[in-house]
């Protein structure tokens, strides 16, 4: 997922470099970014409990990160398209724009 991100998706060049690694585009520190719902996170390996911890501030420059759009994402899917994300049968109906950051950029979030 992170291989297609650009430096502008991050608050600082240091975060961009750390998340994308030096040469191969792989996250070195198990930090991640989900552009679909605009969330930055620390991914805890399965052998340590397998959790995801959202982060609200950049660990390198201290800047406050943009608000997560998780709730808005699911609310719009339900309200505008009648899609309950928890229902696996309706997930196939999710419009393509909601599979990337296109939906929130289009709506100026």
Task: Outline the structure in words.
Strands 1-2-3 form a 3-stranded antiparallel sheet, with no helix packed on it. Helix content is 23%, strand content 11%. Strand 2 and strand 3 form a beta hairpin. It is an alpha+beta fold. The protein folds into 2 domains: 2-54, no CATH class; 70-106, no CATH class. 14% of the residues are buried. The radius of gyration is 15 Å and the shape is globular. The longest helix is centred in the C-terminal third of the chain and has 12 residues, at 70-81.
What does the secondary structure layout of this molecule look like, with pairings?
Blueprint (H helix, E strand, L loop, with lengths): L12 H8 L10 E4 L4 E5 L8 E3 L15 H12 L20 H5 L3
Antiparallel strand pairs: 1-2, 2-3
Task: Give a short summary of the structure.
This protein has 109 residues and is an alpha+beta fold. The chain has 3 helices and 3 strands; from the N terminus they run H-E-E-E-H-H.
């Amino acid at each position: 997922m992170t291989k297609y991100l650009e430096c502008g998706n991050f608050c600082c060049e240091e975060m961009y470099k750390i998340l994308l690694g030096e040469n191969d585009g792989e996250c070195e520190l198990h930090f991640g970014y989900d552009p679909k719902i605009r969330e930055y996170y620390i991914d805890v390996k399965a052998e340590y409990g397998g959790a995801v911890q959202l982060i609200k501030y950049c660990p390198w420059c201290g800047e406050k990160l943009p608000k997560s759009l998780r709730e808005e994402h699911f609310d719009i899917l339900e309200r505008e398209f009648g899609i309950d994300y928890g229902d696996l049968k309706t997930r196939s109906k999710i419009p393509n724009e909601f599979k990337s950051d296109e939906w929130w950029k289009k709506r100026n979030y």
